[in-house]
Amino acid sequence: MKASDAENLGFVFSDFGTRRRFSYEWQDKIIQILKSELSAEF
Q1: For residues 7 and 30, what is the distance between their CA atoms, to the nearest angstrom?
Q2: Between the CA of residue 20 and those of 10, 17, 24, what are the distances in Å?
Q3: pTM above threshold 0.85
């Protein structure tokens, strides 16, 4: 799914990965990407 598709579907995405994350660095990178690509939905 592309970020532009998410805008058209009207959904909100939340991250609940802090307890079972692979690593802090990996989660931080993913969160930054999600914030930049899905800012209104995230």
Answers
A1: 19
A2: 27, 6, 10
A3: no
